[in-house]
Amino acid sequence: MDMEAIIRERGQREKEKETDRERERYISAAMEAELKLNNTQPPPPEIRGSMMHWSLLQAAMNGDTNVLAYVNNFCINDYFLSKTSPEQENIIHIAVKSRQLRFIKEALDIFPTLIHDQDMDGNTPLHVAACQGENNIISLLISHLRNHNCSSATNNNGEDDDCRGVLAMNVQGNTPFHVAIENRKVEAAVVFCRECAEDQLERLFHTTNHDARTPLHLSNQSNLWGHQLSIRNTNVGSVQAHTLDVVKNLKEMMMRTKRVAKEQALVERKMDDILYKAAVTMDLEVFHGVRRRDGDIEGGSIVRPDNAYFLAQTANGSNIIHIALQQGKREGVRFIEEALDRFPSLIFQADSYGDTPIHLAAKSDNPVSKAFLKRFSRVYIQIREQHKQGVLAQPWKAKNSKGNMPIHEALRTNNVYAALVLLRIDFDAASFVNNLGETPLHNVGTVDVDDPLFETMITHHISAAYARDNDGLTPLLRAAKSGRFRIVRALLERCPQSAYMRDPEGKTFLHLLRFEGGDVDEHSADQLFKQMGENLFKLPEADAQRLVLDHEGNTPLHCAIKSGNSIAAEILTRRCLKTEEQSELILSNNDGETVQNLLASHEVPNEVLELIRKRHRNVMYSARSTYGVRRANIKDSAGSLSIIAGLLATITFAAAFQVPGGFDGDSGSPVLFPELDIKYWGSDSLNKLGSLIGIPLKTDETTKEKTMLNYARMLTDIPREGTFPDYVEFVNEYDILVRQKVEFGWKPTKCTHCNLGHEEEECRKKLNIRRE
Questions:
Q1: CA–CA distance, 246 with 214 (Å, rounded to integer)
Q2: For residue 360, what is the DSSP state?
Q3: Which segments carry the ANK repeats (predicted)?
């Protein structure tokens, strides 16, 4: 390059610099003149050295929107877009800190991309507003992001334009939502939930910062909502997985907020009383015209409203279909059919709880719901034919505020008819997952293996039988834990491999199995075992789970005894004793406890004890002490045992040296213990109670079988000279003195003077005394 070219280039650069200086001097002079007119004081000295001119900084701090007017006159956009404070804050950052709502709105209308600028800490204006808890500014900024998709904004996370500002991260990886929760700005967090679009909410709650923390983690860490959230860390290989067990979390707060906002909006344009009353009374005349009053004329005129009139909703979001379904009266069938034929788009409307009409129909089993479901498919096909272009919403896939689709609601209420209709509409409904991670098989109630509903779900989506919900439970594990034995059996017969799947604690379905509900009679365990237990263990996959140990080393029999699951304990014991190895009696858990130890330390049904006693008497002797008390409770019962031991020794001594004829060993006296607690009906307990009165001989059949629970009765040998008390006292297992009422079926005649078998009036000894 020659010397002349270098000189020309240098001159050009100097000219450009001079132009920039003149432009800045002009802006400064203009703004200073404006500030002088407003009697504005000059800024502090430390602000004068910033990259942004102090006058512009002062305007942003004071909310002076006049400075923005110079943009249109002098085309100086680049000045506002490039100038920042020493902390790299633009005019929006500064205005947010100063709470200048009007300035922010007007500035963003002219410079929409400023909302994405980050300061030296990576904070956008939305981060600053979230930190300060400025709810109105947060609402304005989110609304601006929603209405202005700034294509020039960059996003390192690859999110779409609608999510860029809301999910923007600072240097710590925190989104504005993280910042609001971290600074305990609850109302600000609610504003985020209310203003963000529904498709943004899932990302809003599950975006993690650089410490792998979601906003929900931070809310728990700062105890923002008390005990509404519990977090359990589970190591999965080298990955730290955070399992969230949400009881009442921020999502519920969000749903309530959105519901209230929707209700407030509906109040302004709510359904009028005439249409509401017509829906409640199922009045078909409303579809042919609405009678209005004209002045003072009672009759009025007939007005034919447009379609929008019939699409109106009540304050809680219900349309006329919702109302008719809620009434559930047979007269509403014709009303439903007429409404669907005239206004088919009603099927898409949801109330404040997110329930569409098909949700309500799925929840209720009545004539109106059935009429709606019969009509629904035809109405939807008709709408689809009219709207061939674009994507048409599918109401059977919509989730309500609880996160349930119609198929889940149908099965939760055991509405089999509705569930079958929904499956015929879309066979994929068998695999739909709600917000709890549950498939329809998780929610199914009572069903048999040959039931059409169960057959349809398994046939079209057998994979749903192996799906886990948010608690890590498959449909089989959930059914076992809930005591739905018929579903357990049906799932095992159709999907036997599901028996090998365990819950997060390593428990199989046998560990969780409970017998509850109408199928189970706790007083007929023998019959129950024959009907259910034997059929269950015929499946090799089910029988193989008897010896599986959970993470604590417990077999299913261990768990049944420890949890007091008496029927499961008896069924598992019966199955164990039918095998040659009887391995369950030998295996010990991580605490070194065998079934033998558990029998001594836990309340075990007498049936289980009798079953094991017949086969292993040594087990029972080692499990219990000489007095029949569990070894674990010997220390607590020492005082009571000492008293009883003394009484037994006294009675034994008295019986050995009793004068012949003092006891009637062939008959004895029936002793009744009215309202005796059922836990003392065992042979050991009754013997101890009877020994307080005499020598126990035997109990009757009704007491042994526990078929008559009004009283326990036993035959006791009592000396004629002994007492016949109205009550006996003993100390129970809680060291509490118990007074037990006693009744006698027969009392011998006894003279109070000589204690022989005659009345006092006939006593010869007494008569002899009188003669003397």
A1: 13
A2: H
A3: 121-153, 471-494
In CATH terms, the fold of domain 269-287+303-425 is 1.25.40
CA dist 642 and 103 (Å) reads 89
CA 660 to chain centre: 72
Residues of the chain with CATH 1.25.40.20: 87-253, 269-287+303-425
Give the 3-state secondary structure of residue 718: coil
Encoded amino acid at 257, one letter = T
Rounded CA-CA distance 462/649 in Å is: 68
Residue whose C-alpha is closest to residue 272's, from 298, 252, 254, 291: 291
Q: What is the Rg, in whole angstroms, of the alpha carbon atoms belonging to the chain? A: 41
Confidence of residue 553 (pLDDT cuts 50, 70, 90): very high
Distance CA 196, CA 207 (A): 14
Which of 197, 175, 63, 84 is CA-nearest to residue 130? 175
Q: What are phi and psi of 465, to 5 degrees?
A: -70, -15
Amino acid code (one letter) for 238: S
- For residue 549, pLDDT over 90 is answered with yes
Distance CA 193, CA 258 (A): 8
Pick the more confident residue, 153 or 408: 408
pLDDT for 405 beyond 90: yes
- Lowest-pLDDT range, 125-139, 443-457, 470-484? 443-457
Please report the DSSP string for 386-403 in residue order: H--SS----GGG---TTS
**pLDDT per residue over 661-706, tens digit each?**
333 444 567 777 887 877 788 877 888 888 888 888 877 777 777 6
C-alpha 325/C-alpha 305 separation (Å) is: 23
Band (pLDDT 50/70/90 cuts) for residue 256 is: low
Q: Which of 544, 558, 455 lies closest to 499 in space, CA to CA? A: 544
CA dist 576 and 581 (Å) reads 8
Look at the pTM and tell me if it is higher than 0.70. no
Dist. CA 16–CA 22, nearest whole Å: 10
Q: For the chain, what's the residue count?
A: 772
What is the torsion angle, in degrees rounded to the nearest 10, for the CA atoms of residue 326, residue 332, residue 336 and residue 339? Answer: -110
Do residues 211 and 173 touch, judged by C-beta distance below 8 A? yes
Residue 160 sits at the vertex; the CA angle it makes with 156 and 161, to the nearest 5 degrees, is 95
Strand, helix or coil at 369? helix
Structure tokens at 121: 């800490």
Return all residues near 772 (Cβ < 8 A) that are at least 6 apart: none
Q: Are 710 and 676 in contact (CB under 8 A)?
A: no
Rounded CA gap, 377 and 373, in Å?
7
Beta pairing, strands 727-731 & 239-246: unpaired
pLDDT digits (tens, 9 = 90+) for 46-57: 333 346 767 777
Q: What is the pLDDT of residues 212-230, one digit of tens each?
A: 788 877 765 555 543 333 3
Q: What is the pLDDT of residues 257-277, one digit of tens each?
A: 555 555 555 555 678 888 889
Fold of 87-253: 1.25.40
Query: Pairing mode, if any, of strands 743-744 and 695-699?
Result: unpaired
Q: Which two tokens stand for residue 176?
A: 């504005």
